Every structure is written in structure tokens, then in C-alpha cells.
Amino acid sequence: MRRFPLPRRRRWRLLLGTLAAAGALFGWQRVPATPAGVLFWPLWVAATQVIYTGALESARLRRHAWLGQYLKPASPWHRRLGGGAFMIGRVQLTSAFLALVLLVSLRRLGAADVALLTLAPGLFSLCQRCLDARLHSHIIERYRPALVRRLCVFGVAAVLSLGLVLVRLWQPQPYMVDTAWQTAISSHAVAATGPTLLGSLERLASAMELTGFWLMQNTLGRFDVSQGISLLAWAIMLLMQATLAWSLSRLLAGIAALHARCASPEESAELRPLPWSE
What is the DSSP letter of 225? Predict the structure, then answer.
């Protein structure tokens, strides 16, 4: 039984393309502020469209499964509810937001975070191989690649989220106990890198993360404060790390979906277009 649907050469091509995209992102992370602000816009557009490719495939897969459960094959509502401008616009906006979060977060990562995230392409590829081997005899052939990519997003994002949270808790944080919130933010937030959108977003993200740690430090061990404040502090940290992990996982899924779309259907029957795109 085949362990993976892609031929060896195409599998290596996909892996090299994923590593090239990851190298471009992490290379941009190290670029100084001024050129990074210039490159931010084309990178944002490119990352948005890559994420959009995988996200639209996942949205259409969900819609197609829903329609197949309730509608008869001859019903004209298949065409009307198959996903039109509203779905495309919603997915496009969501992809733009995830790409923005990914790029802004990359500018603020430390060495430990980067080392963890560089494992994501290999983890995604390994997850694809394992899931495809498990689902090969259970899932309809033409739906399996898209379903595997969708499931990999959840698995890889969960692992990366856990790793990022552990890294954040392991790294030393500024001491802000008994310090006013305004003072803590103004003292420890990253300096603005000029009047650019990227610089403003970096400072906003830094302020949000510092707010979470400020709440943690000033509520830890104090029983006279509301438990809701402590939960809010943890929620801010977990939400920021989970959003970064989800954005990167979506990007990897988009690269894999784009590779599958560009592949020739004559060479690989498993990668032929899904029914709604034929």
C-alpha cells in the first residue's frame, strides 16, 4: 500500500517550496526596520493569497459536505449555495488578518520562538504523511488530500500553540509587580519603528502581550482580586500564541494546496480538482 500520494520528486519539490517560503519569512524578520517596512506590503499580499488558497479549499470542502448531506443531487440549490462572492470575501478578509498577525508576530519573536517555528514545515509534512496513510482506505480519493490538509492545520496549530506558550512561560519577563499599567507599557513596550503601519502594529502587539503579563504578575497569589482578571491575563497570552500558530499552519496548508492546484491532474489523479471547481 502506498504511504503517501505524491511521487518522490514532487514530494521533495513541495518540501523545498515550503522551506523557501519559510526562509523568506524568517529572513525578512531579521531585516532592519526601514527596508522591512517597505517589504511588508508585498509580503502581506503574498502571504494573504497563499493562506486564502488553503482556506478557500477548506471552506468549500465544508460547504460541499454540508450540501451533500441534505440536498438531492438534482437540486439547483447545489449551485446557489456552493459558495459565491460572500464566501470568497469572508475568506479573503480572514486570510488578510491571519497574514497580518503572522508578519507582525514574526518581527517580535526571539531565538527560542524562531527555533520552534522552524520545525513547523517538517511537522506539517510528517502530519500529512501519517494522516494520509491512516485515511487512505477510509476517505474518498478525490476528497482525501484536501481533508488531510485541513486536519493537519488543527494538529500542527495545537502543537505549536503549546510550544509557544511554554517558551513564553520559560523566558524571563519584565518585572511589573506594583507598577502602574501605563508606566509598565511605556517602559517596556517596543519602540515605534517610524510612522509606518508595521511599526504601529508591532507596538500594539507588544502592549497587548505586556498587558497579559502585567495582569498575571499583579494577580498572582492575591486572593482579593477577581478571578476574571487572572483568566483575562491567561486568555490574552493563549490567544496571541494560538493565533500565531494558526496563522503559520494556515500558511503551510495554503502552500500545500497551491502546490496541489498547480500539479498536473494527468500525472497525479489524487490531486485532480474537487467537483465544485471542475
Answer: S
What is each CA distance from 49 to 42, 56, 64, 273, in whole angstroms?
Answer: 11, 10, 22, 18
> What per-residue confidence (pLDDT) applies to 258?
85
Task: Measure Cα distances from 65 to 39, 68, 161, 225 in Å.
Answer: 39, 5, 28, 48
Mean pLDDT of 26-41: 83
DSSP 275: G
Q: State the sign of the Cα–Cα–Cα–Cα dihedral 228, 245, 170, 32.
A: negative
Q: Is 102 exposed, middle or buried (0-12, 13-18, 19+ CB in 10 A)?
A: buried
**Do 216 and 233 meet the contact criterion of CB atoms below 8 Å apart?**
yes
d(CA 230, CA 208): 15
Condensed to tens digits (0 to 9), the pLDDT of residues 226-272 reads 566 777 778 888 898 999 999 999 999 999 888 887 764 433 333 33
Q: Which residue has the cell 517602559?
A: 187
- Residue 46 to residue 102: CA distance in whole angstroms: 12
Listing DSSP states for 138-152 in one string gives TS-TTTHHHHHHHHH
What's the pTM? 0.81
Higher-confidence residue of 225 and 155: namely 155
